[in-house]
Amino acid sequence: MLVRSERGEIQKKKNFYLLIILIVSISVAVIVYYVAASKVRNRIVDEYIKTKTNNLSEEFTGQMQSFENTIHLFSKWGQNGLINLDDTASFERAFIPILSDVESIYGITIIENTGNEYEIIKKDSLFLSNFYFPRKKLSLKKYIDRQGNVIRNQKVNQNKSVSEKYWLKKSKVDSDFIWQGPYVSKLFNEEVVSISSSWINKDSTVVHIAIHVLLKDIFRTFAKVDLSDDEYIFLLNDYGDIYDIPGINNFTDREYASYSSLNPYYRIKLPEVAKAVEMWLNNQKDTINTVAFKIKHNNYWAKFKFLNKQKPYYLMGIVVSGKSINSKIGKNNIQILLLSTVILLLGALFMVLVIIRSNRRLRELQKTEIRKNFIKGDIKKLASLPEGKTLEFKSTIRYNLRTEKNDKAIEFAWLKGIAAFLNAEGGVLLIGVNDEGAFTGIEKDGFENEDKALLHIKNLISKNIGVEFMKFITMFTTEIEEKTIIALVCKQSNKPAYIKNGGEEQFYVRVGPSSTKLTLTQTVEHIFTHGYKRIVTMN
Question: Which helix (H) or strand (E) holds 208?
């Protein structure tokens, strides 16, 4: 038979439920905090990036559209026979106003498959017109002011091949237009983006025309974005090649191939940009979601977006730092913390309810205690209760009311009750109270006085149970209804208490309102599970 402390079980369950509620409350609060914080952070990052790049895409698309409209116009002129290299003066009259009005266009080139080439570019406050005759290996140069007046003519012996033109290598006949670059133009000694178109004249001459835009002018739009020192905006292509970054000096030894994000320069000097592009490439080139990453414990977010979805030639990349975001997140964190606090408060409320319920159950158990200053009142209160796991009544100490003689069996009856209390969770033995709770007194036991009665009780306990257990027992005497009543208040022992019965040691525990003897197996099991060594005694 396994005997457990009911109070201990209630306390154990209470502690278990409190622990579970505490763990669940904290876990839910932490999860809610981080999930909500993550959503808020992502929303703030998206709003921050959107604010930074507001209208940038529209401006860039409008700028590109302007270039496309221009090359489309030139192509229509050529297809209608209006572009003829035999009449360069007509080009100058048509092209100079366009170059003057569209500041971003720095040059226009026309090349025939015969090798004839015409080019006009901006040169400080003038325009340089260059007409090349491959057969004569001669170039005719003109310096023209903005009003179209020729300032100076110049003949230059020159031998070159049309293959030197980077943009020409990728031009396609009868194409509407093709974007080329960026690449380093030897003519401008700058990074250039070219838009080209081609057609075939009636005389079967293939004609190619291109307008050239300096990359730095394209980046004038990007430079409008207000970024902190550790934030970057840059132009790249779908392969992850980075063309330029506003505010960063041009890289040395550039060829007409754009720099890859794997380039050592980016990895060493601009790790934020290199990491952002690398993650974007590894994330299936996602242009919808924001990419988050860390460098040296610093948080960064990157966003990539095609500048023109209908014509996905170039993308905008932007990297923003945690420093810029944290201040904005801090304001929203107050709401998140309040939500987490509410969850913790709900958890605390459940804990209070568990404590109240457990305490109610504990109060429902028999409260068997006698206070030193309220001995009579507490005994009366106990006598009004039914016998139970922690309360027992005995009419006498040694006198058998049936045989009207002193009887060892009477003494053993309450001694085994004491032992049972010691081996369970304690209890109170009232001597001089019958089974109905009536006060009968110990007068029939025939002791000279109360002290003699108490001494006899003490000797019996010391002899039959053990003197060492007296420290767990407190004895009280009082008179109620002119009857002498003795109360023995037992605490739970810190080791097993055996009672001697003849030549045998027996082990009793309290089960309900009776003291029950355990078998050897039951005794071993009880001792093993009861945990006597963990009990702290109070003298």
Answer: strand 206-214
